[in-house]
Amino acid sequence: MTRMLLxxxxxxxxxxxxxxxxxxxxxxxxxxxxxxxxxxxxxxDVTNAKEIVEELLQYLDTAEFAMREELSLKxxxxxxxxxxxxxxxxxxILQLIDKAGDFVSDDIWYRxxxxxxxxxxxxxYAATKAREYLDKPALHETMVKVSAYLxxxxxxxxxxxxxxxxKELFAIxxxxxxxxxxxxxxxxxxxxxxxxxxxxxxxxxxQQQILTIFKKYESYIDVExxxxxxxxxxxxxxxxxxxxxxxxxxxxxxxxxALLKKAEDAEIDTAEQSAIKLRSQQQTSxxxxxxxxxxxxxxxxxxxxxxxxxxxxxxxxxTQESGVSYExxxxxxxxxxxxxxxxxxxxxxxxxxxxxxxxxxAEPPSTSHSTSPGDLLLADLxxxxxxxxxxxxxxxPAQGLNANQSPAGDLALATLDDQSNxxxxxxxVEEKFHILCxxxxxxxxxxxxxxxxxxxxxxxxxxxxxxxxxxxxxxALTSVRALILPPSHLKMELSSxxxxxxxxAQVQVPLEVANLLASRDVAVLDFSYAFGTSLVDAKxxxxxxxxxxxxxxxxxxxxxxxxxxxxxxxSLKVQEVVKGVxxxxxxxxxxxxxxxxxxxxxxxxxxxxxxVACTTFFSEATRAMLCLIRVETDPQDRTQLRLTVASGDxxxxx
Length: 654
Hints:
The protein is an alpha+beta fold. It has 21 helices and 15 strands. The radius of gyration is 28 Å and the shape is flat.
């Protein structure tokens, strides 16, 4: 049956017998138990991963020692490849270490530390779980390593919780010191130094306890521990300057996961060996859980260098090479196939894309709220961008910024539910798009056979995206095709995509972007592939939206008001009263503005119920363009507000 998993049409049939296969893990015959484990490992995907991994964790309690190492390795790999949430992944790995510490390789706990370090949302949660495990009377040394590391780096995030003060964290970790080996002692010494650094105000008693331990280990027989003790002792006497030396660990670069290679080495079943051989011939890899990274928009230009009220020229030429260099995108934990070729420019297909966003004309303030500029401005800011709306007209830079409007193209952007695919996504594609409008990495699309991830970085009016196409199954995906349908305001170049994605492989496809001028239109990825007899076609909106080309800027009150007063032209300053707004506290609105790269300027408006923000917009046409925003709210009625937006570009303002 494990061999039969390589046949596409048989996979779903085998999954129907999952309960019986799990029961076979308790069979008296060890050969049957091994085959059941191999089969569960082979049939696991995103639809059943959580159930299978949790069953494997339960089985760890009763599994014989001969199977525990292989069982732990496979559970860790499945948790990494098919984790529905990173919090669940952290829980699984910590349970795995707790249940089978002797059989958990260093690669497994290194990997969870890497995920926690690279994902800020996980750090407080992981530190909390580590603190809970330290309360157990009997704890495996590997768990001591992981817990000490996590609490050293992120224990200060728990400082206000009961039992999590620096002194209490030190005491519970120090209780484990006499029972651990030299390699763990080295980690504990580093943890003590980090705890001391984060103790503010300084605790003289705690400092003396930690310095005594450092002094004790200065004469330790192990050279590594001796060196750490000497250095930490001297550093700890620097006081506040200690923070400059013992900074928080930076994000790890994405690297190839060592777990997959270990899995192949551990396979002893003949059927599984044949599957490994087939996959190795097709250059195997694994799906990736993409980490969030903060946006990289470069450095803000001085205020006096920004274009304020100057109108852009009437024609827009093709984007020229600006000399902006990009750092190489972090590599995923698996090696991508080498079929990626040189980038091929994708020409604008103005007649092949339906405009799904409104182009707004500058109009005088009006009390009508049907489709006023203010309504759409609010949707742009709080949407996070307005990506829904009645069909709009097209804006063609080749005909000038004031060109006549023309109808949209013939190709409508269908939602996935409307497409005649037999294979449907297993994620909310609309929700994923909205998330990626304010984040620079994540999952764009996923179905039972493929996951499309995205990672992006932005500098001024240039962007670089990497699409991660991950084949989640043991059969190849064929007839793979990716085509970018860009709106007229974007210049986009997509690298070539291989026709076939091998089993369990991931392909990286770079996409270069240049923003020509302000617009609310969205580019579309027309992606299709074949899996067995199924042909899947998905048209996905790419989160290359206006706020990606914004960069926060700080203005003094004098600078802000001088520019605010200078923007008096009707088309450069739009004001609307918007009703029917979802009530939102000002603090929440300020956080939303920051996620959109709009810098909230507290104190500029004397009314505490108002919000003032400023940002810089980058495009080929306008270069750096200052944009000013004011939101006036009524504390008696949070369902309405007055929104004013001003900039030197009428298309950016509207």
